[in-house]
Structures
1.
Amino acid sequence: MELVWFKSSHSTNEDANCVEIAWRKSSYSTNEGAQCVEVAETTTAVLVRDSKDKSGPHLAFDPTAWQAFVTFAATAEV
């Protein structure tokens, strides 16, 4: 899985103290997949965004809630 780094659109070239977040996409995703999301982890939240709209809105989840969701999704019979 390759991490992709993006600089915040709120940062300027003059500001040396910008914060970057490493977004990752599932290794099961392909470049042809139109239904992909990307995930990034911070110290307080797990962020999720649409991979087609990288500068658009994102969802923020508590890390414990996100782990519960991932565990459920991996083990649930749909």
2.
Amino acid sequence: MPAPIPVTLLTGFLGSGKTTLLNALLKDPGMDRAAVVINEFGEIGLDHDLIETATETMVLMASGCLCCTVRGDLAETLNDLRQRREAGEIAFDRVVIETTGIADPAPIVQTLVMDGDLSYDFALDGVLVTADAATGARTLDQNFEAVQQVAMADRLILTKTDLVTPAQLAAFEQRLAALNPGAQRHRADHGRIDPSLLFGLSPTQESTRQQALAWVAAAPKKASLPPLSGLKQTTPAGTAHGLFAPAGARPSHDGRVSSQSIEIAEPISPIVFDLWLESLMNSSAADILRMKGVVHVEGMKHPFALHGVQHIFHPPVPLTHWPEGDRTTRLVVIGRDLPPGYLAESLAFLRSKPPVTEHRL
């Protein structure tokens, strides 16, 4: 069975240079076997001198990059691309979806992960978010949607860095790192960036191990709870959030988002972990912006990579090359209005109960 085609979502702050970045990618020889899905050709102002062939819904650039518009809904567009590819009409090895007018990438992630037909042929590779250094801080102050975008990003592309001082740029990067410690940041020079920095983000044996460890290493550290069989929890310093905020407190948009990490030294019961995850989704799915990590469960030789956006979880990826001596479960969660200690305490509570067994009739 052939590997699914990787799909990358490109979103970002309004006016952050997403269109400039997209135009630069369309001209880049490194995009010669990519299909870029956009809303309307007129929105990105294609350079007609660089167009090789064109139809009403599809344009082939001289670079070899294929650009097409959405027909009906996204699923219909992707299925049309797949059918043309199988018929030999077009050739592409990856898809980039430009999300004009869509602030929240979660619905597209849900389409890719939950649509049974699409999931056989397409797989989410990553979420790219453009953030301009010139006005990005103000955007984060005024629009919580921008904070959510940063929290959901796999890569953050900084634009307009030439319009700010080094000190301003450093402060903006620090703010982005606080919101999403695991997302790598790259700078685009007037939209130009090496395409290889933007792709290949989907779980693989080695990359998932490195990404998960990088997420945990980057998570803010504070104090830990008294350990329960190796369980510990960390949260960033700051004021209380959500229901535990003092009366009259008005936290900033950034203050509503926190990163919590959990480590468990030995394998966890799969029943307990499933129950915890199900309870978390039932109570706080909309507030779990991102979850990533490596989970070791009892009875399994290898751990698996866990990756979720809100209530949508990618199929678990077995990490068969994971070092045998390392059996620590590591999770990092970026959430909105989550009380400090909420995640670790809820899991500790379930783990403290007598063993749960399945009963079959």
3.
Amino acid sequence: MSTNNVVFTRREFLRTSAVVSTGLTLPAFLTGWRGLAQAEEPGAGGRILVVLQLGGGNDGLNTLVPYTDDAYRRARPALALPKDRVLDIDGRFGFNDSLAALKGLFDDGKVAVVHGVGYPNPDRSHFRSMDIWHTASDSDRYETTGWLGRYFHNCCGGKPDPVTGVNVGAKMPMAFAGSDVGVSFTNPAWFRWLPGDGADTEKAFRELNTGKAEGTLDYLRAVSSSVVATSDKVQAVARKRRAAGDYPQSRFADDLHTVANMILGGLPARIYYVSMTGFDTHAGQAGTQERLLKEFAEGVKAFHGDLAKAGAADRVLMMSFSEFGRRVEENASGGTDHGTAGPMFVIGDGAAPGLKGASPKLTDLDQGDLKHTVDFRAVYGEVVSRWLGGDAKQVLGRDLQPLGVVREG
């Protein structure tokens, strides 16, 4: 390899330039992207999935409340919600009244609620269970690719745009792993390529794009062009940011407002990923969970309403999950400990509304924990196949019976 014209090494290039954001993550596409300008834009005008992660292990029994079940009240003398604080669904189950905004969407036919979601041989570690949900693996297998990473790789065709997947947060989720797709930022306005040393970096960029450099600088040329193109695309949408309007004041609502701006601004993303934290309620659960559930419900309602006003709600589906539920019995600290199964929500105009799956029995437990009745991968699979139009078996490596959480057609 000739090095006569090689002025900047990789190390020098990375030292004199940076892609800057609060919590920015850039994935593997920076090491091999070649066709950004010709990339498809599958999310522009098409269907979009917004994944909502409730980190910490949300207590499902005080979310979707079996309020007429005596076993629920016996197990939770302090934490069981009184009947006047439950928003009835079917005479047996109801929403925690902190979810009043979500109940409104449910009554409008926009929410599917899935009972008892989990997986065989559950793991009660936050980290391991979250990995299982992110990779859609069995609990005895360790995968290196995420379920959304496999979706991008197998179902998006050719070389999709890096912004086909967007995480609003500081750290790229494991669910995106194994793909050349995905960008992550806490604020799109700060997603940019920023020169470090002025004239030196400008000179480096000129060298990278003149064709003088050979060998390893082909790599750098690809890096530079893809970083700048992706940065410019996100920045162009960020400049169209609209006022928060009806969104409540919370970090979660702010993140959903960012997603709405990206969607309505024309960013070609097919998947958005938004996370909440704080659901690990070992002590003082009541006040903490109620606050978080209210933030969740009101954020979701504002987001859906924002999209509806713009005529875009029919192409955006939300799906929420938590890495596990909580144990049936309350503990001595006014909280609950790590458990197993819990509910999932599928929300939007494309949701097939109602209660789905069989509810776990509170009198038939596995060492004090609920037995799951629905495998979470069945929900993933239906969302992939019916909503996103992908091949669920390619993504998940298995066939699972649809539950009817997504409207057909």
4.
Amino acid sequence: MKKLDWQIRIGLILVVVSIVLYILHYLIFQNFHFLSEYTLFYFAFMPIEVIFVTLVLDQLLEFREVEDRMEKLNMVIGVFFSEEGTRLLKEFAASDPDIEQIRNDLVVGQKWTDRQFEDVKRRLNDHPHNIDINKVDLENLRNILISKREFSVRLLENPVLLEHESFTELLRSVFHLTEELEFRKDLKALPQSDLIHIDKDMERVYARLIGTWLDYMKYMKKRYPYLYSLSMRTNPFDVNASPIVTQ
């Protein structure tokens, strides 16, 4: 209501200013014919002006707002991978029995195009994202997740996540896996049925992590080459990855 009152006051002020300027114009130049002719011309042009403002400028402003929101969102996603996501990817990829089928596809390059990113993402849809739970250090994974839980909570509190349902689902699946591991006191004495259950939770996180990571790499390649360079050199799927620049 306060916003509406403010807009009404501004509108009334602008109308009064227009009337005063018209009166001043008449008092100075004493040319009512020109003034009326100009006013009629302006009103005749007004529908075109309205179309331009509402359809063109409004769309441009909306596009800019979307761009700004996506920029903030990708900043949040970048922080997630720096703090937690890349480490989780490395853990899960090391336990993926089929990783060699997609490893080369995920070693992204400096000259990759948007089409290459999209092609790899389509191929990932056919990847089973299996995890051999016997290769996973569950206690270490639990410690990683619990140590980053507060950080993940702060991410979920960020309103920009409303713009990215898939990333929100990723965080939700990470939280669920954290709780599943935290509630179990002895992770080394779990029955096979429970291990299968936890394995499914890890695979859910793994599948969502890879897709989000690939999208984020594509974004950095286009917008922030220096960030993309570091991410290539610390690629969790590249067995030869090193942060050291050698050429």
